[in-house]
């Protein structure tokens, strides 16, 4: 039976949560404690095995000090903006999906301010 | 023709846009050059990256890093462009102050881009104006902090720059 519940989406959200969590130097257990989940649940969310609920997404964003939207990949299909090969070769395997998401958001209004 | 040094390239750029004030508005300079600067969350090991396509360039900056690091990232990628480095893209994984001198081979261009960034954000003339020829005591944390703030760079980036300009004194 084909899985129509978009497992790739949950994997990408999970990767993003894991990436931000690590950047904050927070272990899975610390994040789990902050949002009232077990460490195993957090691990499952980060792997995309567990489909995160919206209120949990908000709690995790709050615990990481960012907006929930920053954990969400863009709606557009990733194929729309192919990654230059040259760039792809310089990325580690686990970095590709998040860089790809970044690229598909380009053209938005998130320009840098001085 | 002698090759332009990163320091010369940075100061030429500042002159071209008549920038005398600090903090140097680095994102602004990039935009005036026609480079798109885009800020958003990236994997933690990546400070930013550069993509060059036909006639246009995009600098991506990791929003999860501090604003001083974001500025350095923009300046670094801008350095690749200004110095005409050949690669079509660059993934910048941050400045490693300790290994800067011992790197080799491919890293040469990375070091040049870092030197460019340091010179762009902390112009020698402006530093001299602020610290004089006597330099700064690196143990004077308050002084380092307040200078770093003036340039909107990290204290580490400032210290590294002071050492390179031989304006650092140590007990």
What does this structure look like?
The complex is a heterodimer of chains A (114) and B (171). Chain A is mainly alpha-helical and 114 residues long. Helix content of chain A is 52%, strand content 0%. Chain A is globular. Mean pLDDT of chain A is 84; it is low at 108-114. Chain B is 46% helix and 16% strand. Chain B contains seven helices and six strands; from the N terminus they run ααβββαβααβααβ. Chain B has helices at residues 6-16, 26-32, 67-82, 107-121, 124-131, 141-151, 155-164, and strands spanning 35-40, 48-53, 56-62, 89-92, 136-137, 168-169. In chain B, the strands form two sheets. Chain B has a four-stranded mixed beta sheet with strand order 1-3-2-4. In chain B, strands 5-6 form a two-stranded parallel sheet. The relative contact order of chain B is 0.16. The model of chain B has no long low-confidence stretch (mean pLDDT 90). Chains A and B meet through helix 1 and helix 6 of A and helix 2, strand 1, strand 2, strand 3 and strand 4 of B.
For the secondary structure, the number of strands of chain B is 6
Q: Which structural class is indicated by helix and strand composition of chain B?
A: alpha/beta
Overall pLDDT metric of chain B: 90
Low-confidence stretches of chain B: none
The H/E string of chain B reads HHEEEHEHHEHHE
Q: What's the end-to-end separation of chain B, in Å?
A: 42 Å
Helix-and-strand structural type of chain A: mainly alpha
Strand order of the largest sheet of chain B: 1-3-2-4
H/E element string of chain A? HHHHHH
* Biggest interface: A-B, 27 and 33 residues
Major β-sheet annotation of chain B: 4 strands, mixed
**Contiguous runs where pLDDT drops below 50 for at least 5 residues of chain A:** 108-114
């Amino acid at each position: 039976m084909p899985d129509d519940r978009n497992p790739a989406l949950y994997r990408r959200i999970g990767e993003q949560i894991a990436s931000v969590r690590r950047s904050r130097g927070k272990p899975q257990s610390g994040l789990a404690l902050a949002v009232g989940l077990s460490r195993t649940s957090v691990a499952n969310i980060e792997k995309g095995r567990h489909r995160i609920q919206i209120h949990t997404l908000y709690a995790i964003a709050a615990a990481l000090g960012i907006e929930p939207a920053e954990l969400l990949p863009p709606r557009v299909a990733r194929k729309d903006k192919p990654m230059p090969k040259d760039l792809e070769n310089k990325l580690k395997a686990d970095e590709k999906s998040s860089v790809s998401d970044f690229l598909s958001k380009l053209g938005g209004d998130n320009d840098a301010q001085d | 023709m002698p090759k332009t040094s990163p320091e010369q390239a940075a100061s030429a750029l500042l002159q071209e846009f008549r920038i005398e004030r600090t903090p140097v508005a680095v994102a602004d300079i990039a935009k005036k050059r026609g480079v798109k600067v885009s800020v958003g969350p990236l994997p933690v090991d990546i400070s930013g990256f550069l993509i060059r396509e036909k006639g246009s360039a995009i600098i991506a900056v990791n929003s999860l890093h501090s604003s001083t690091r974001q500025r350095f990232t923009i300046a670094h990628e801008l350095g690749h462009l200004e110095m005409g480095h050949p690669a079509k893209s660059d993934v910048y994984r941050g400045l490693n102050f300790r290994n800067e001198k011992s790197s080799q081979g491919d890293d040469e261009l990375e070091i040049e881009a870092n030197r460019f960034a340091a010179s762009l954000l902390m112009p020698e003339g402006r530093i001299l104006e602020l610290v004089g020829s006597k330099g700064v005591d690196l143990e004077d944390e308050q002084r380092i902090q307040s200078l770093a703030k003036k340039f909107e760079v990290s204290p580490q980036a400032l210290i590294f720059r002071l050492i390179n300009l031989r304006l650092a004194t140590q007990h």
